[in-house]
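Project outcomes to date are best conveyed with an example. Our students and postdoctoral researchers have been running inverse folding experiments weekly, and each run begins with a structure described purely in tokens. The record below, which covers 291 residues, was selected by the lab manager from last quarter's runs and is presented without edits.
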């Protein structure tokens, strides 16, 4: 690459964030044939977590017990390198049969970009309706229930710096987003990076699914846990947090209007422009303990 410094161009090597397509297939349906669900552009790594987290967010699975296995493609028509760009998730027999009866699969047969995971859905309105906690019974007015999780505001202000310290890929390339899961103890449990913000969130949620499956005490829903993301917070990121049962979503940048609307209706605390000196709270500030 060429880089300009003080009016002079110099040639030097550079590290770039990797972006490759990932085709997600599902198996274990009554048809007994794997079915293509979506193609997303992602940074390779933690692909099985990405697949599991995406299925949970889309409502195709409800928990770790519904996933029998996750594997890379063994299709002999693909060359060895491309096989690592195809992941097949096999559902448990009960989950596959139930999904077949519901007929709930709507493939996204167009490629999903690394910046927008909602592209390809029939309408944002249908996603919002599916995600509503009250399923169309009117606006969700209730505040978080008594005894539900609370978060120390000053502690939340430290989340972006802790996330940034764990972003090895961003430090090397400057081209990756990140998502981190803050546990009930306040510890940053896991950080995942990707060229797409929504992919990073799927990887984090998929990791939590795997931990629950291994009976390591995390469990779903992730009530009492927080999600911290780099960049802005879109509607889909809040949707994914809601599917996982996360109580608070925080980011270093702004939230979109639909993200704030869904967080308000779902009872999720949504925080943006998170800095050491302050933040903007878009929804449910009552979860934050100020003193």
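After processing, the design step wrote out the following sequence:
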């Amino acid at each position: 690459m060429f880089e300009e410094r003080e009016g002079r161009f110099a040639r030097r090597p550079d590290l770039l964030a990797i972006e490759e397509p990932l085709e997600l297939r599902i198996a274990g349906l009554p048809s007994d044939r794997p079915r293509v669900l979506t193609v997303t552009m992602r940074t390779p790594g933690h692909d099985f977590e990405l697949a599991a987290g995406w299925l949970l967010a889309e409502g195709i699975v409800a928990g770790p017990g519904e996933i029998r296995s996750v594997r890379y493609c063994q299709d002999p028509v693909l060359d060895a390198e491309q096989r690592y760009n195809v992941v097949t998730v096999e559902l448990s027999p009960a989950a596959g049969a139930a999904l077949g009866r519901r007929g709930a699969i709507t493939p996204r047969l167009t490629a999903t970009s690394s910046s927008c995971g909602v592209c390809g859905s029939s309408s944002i309105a249908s996603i919002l309706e599916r995600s509503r906690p009250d399923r169309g019974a009117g606006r969700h007015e209730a505040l978080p229930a008594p005894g539900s999780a609370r978060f120390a505001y000053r502690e939340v202000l430290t989340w972006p710096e802790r996330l940034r310290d764990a972003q090895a890929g961003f430090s090397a390339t400057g081209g990756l987003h990140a998502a981190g899961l803050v546990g009930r103890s306040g510890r940053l449990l896991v950080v995942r990076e990707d060229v797409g913000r929504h992919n990073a969130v799927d990887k984090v949620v998929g990791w939590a699914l795997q931990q629950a499956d291994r009976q390591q005490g995390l469990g779903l829903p992730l009530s009492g846990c927080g999600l911290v993301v780099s960049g802005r917070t879109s509607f889909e990121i809040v949707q994914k947090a809601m599917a996982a049962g996360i109580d608070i979503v925080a980011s270093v940048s702004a939230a979109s209007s639909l993200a704030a609307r869904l967080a308000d209706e779902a009872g999720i605390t949504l925080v943006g422009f998170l800095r050491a000196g302050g933040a903007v709270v878009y929804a449910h500030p009552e979860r934050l303990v100020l003193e």
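The chain has two domains: 20-130, 137-289. The first helix runs from residue 47 to 57. The training component of this project remains on track.
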